[in-house]
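ok so i was messing around last nite and threw this chain in just to see what happens. nothing serious, just curious
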Amino acid sequence: MTNPIALVLGAIILALVFVDWQLFDWTYGLFLARKFAELLEWIAFWR
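result:
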């Protein structure tokens, strides 16, 4: 991955986090964080 691609992806992620904060009051970010935590638990079980 080149530096420009990494910077663009980082900017997109930051923009999405900002939109989630401003428009949706962390609703989707919280949902994704909970699902990611469940996924990590599931992966740890199969390890």
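not much to say yet. The CA atoms of residues 6 and 47 lie 30 Å apart.
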